[in-house]
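Fold this complex.
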Amino acid sequence: MSEAAIRIPSAAQARSHAAITEPRLVRWALIGVALVFLGLFLVVPLVAVFAQALAKGLAVYGQSLVTRDSLAAIRLTLLVAVLVVPLNTVFGVAAAWAISKFEFVGKQLLITLIDLPFSVSPVISGLIFILLFGRNGWLGPWLAAHDYKVIFALPGIVLATLFVTFPFVARELIPLMQAQGTEEEEAARVLGAGGWQTFRRVTLPNIKWGLLYGVILANGRAMGEFGAVSVVSGHIRGQTNTMPLHVEILYNEYNLVAAFSVASLLASLALVTLVLKAVLQWKVARQLALAADAGGMKP
Amino acid sequence: MRIALRRHSVLPGFGLTMGFTLMYLGLVVLIPLAALFLKSAGVGWEHFWSAAWNPRVVASYKLSFGASLAGAAINAVFGLVVAWVLVRYTFPGKAIFDAMVDLPFALPTAVSGITLTSLYAPQGWIGSRLAAMGIPVAYTPLGIVVALTFIGLPFVVRTLQPAIEDLEPELEEAAASLGATRLQTFLRVILPTILPALLTGFAMSFARGLGEYGSVVFISANLPMKTEITPLLIVTKLEEHDTVGACAIAVVMLSASFAILLLINLIQWWSRRHREA
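Structure:
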């Protein structure tokens, strides 16, 4: 009898464990379906990029990267990222500070407006700058009279890239800084720290991983943007061709190995972005947990 | 009396950061977007209407909407399986697969475009096998669906994962102890709880598909009336120096995107209220 009494809870436990998972066969089937799907849509394409780039060996791969046009495209892409990412980072930090540290009317609307570029098609992101700065655009005649070139030149590419990467840093920082609250900064102020000092010594250490995360994402998109840049660049070889546009030109010329060689550089950038993203997400989660613990210990 | 638009705070820098935020937002985002609507408003209703709704444009709307819907639906089904497996089960390589879900976000769209095309072309690794079965993919509408499925995948998985993590096991245990089979528990307890997240992911994947350009233009044959997506038509109009035509189509597309954005916000508002009730 006592034996039966002991067995009852264990049977109930086994049942309750079984109750929140599926039979083993179903589990294996679902894992199988998920892996086949991910394999087909993610792993195979990723392998294919490098396989095609190396299809004619390492020497041809290297040669197609050091052509004059490829090097010019790499230089232009790096230049655009160097100009765009810092600007959007400064904006992201400023916007997150205003939104997370103060209470004001219309905050939700402001957050929605900051996210707006994410729901605009890349092609439209380029089109709007043509309307402003193109030959028949609002500022077109004035620009032409003063011999400034925006569309089909570097400034147009920078503007379109600024637009498409606009929300990245802000949208990573806003929820993080809202969760961290204002207590630490207020304490620093009460203890006599200046505004800039408070930001640099208190806020920045708290948000550094989230900030880096946003910067990495913005940089990935800035270097890889195709649609918006394609509309404003004019595709002038060696001058206004970024790496993604150069990939397109090489591909359309049936120069597949060269196209995939340049593409493999962009794919490597994407892989680095993914690894850093995984690491930084983990760091941000830990920082948030620490902030929550500290909050819990307060009387 | 002064009406307080913001609560007093001891922290400095509100004026500076808010001023910069609004100025930068205005210069980079709002003024350029306003230019699009002003330009379209200036051309007259009839001109706008004929540019935005002629047969070639309407055919592109149908294709873009249909292919995006199909891609989002595929993602809703398989994305649910992927998210479920990644949250609930353990298997070797899980962390790597989890990290790889973001690949379509991180991979530049031109790279996705040429890679998917070379894979699904009649002589490609996957395309040759499908062609042997009589299913051509690249350069057909099916190819566009493949590209849009690839692009939209992370949206569904990444919105579902937190929702599945937040499920309370007590509810599932209660359902089971009341005699529900696992399938009944899934359909009547789990699915209704994660439905808002599933719908949000579906809508985000759909919206992204509507505007997508880079990954589609390579795998599509880009034939007018047949395989020409709406964003490509905007580019074509621009190349023909038909700015008004490009603007009219862009306004229709942008309105559709904003409507979806509103819908996503409504779903989230509804699910928050539902959970609090």
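The longest helix of chain A spans residues 256-297.
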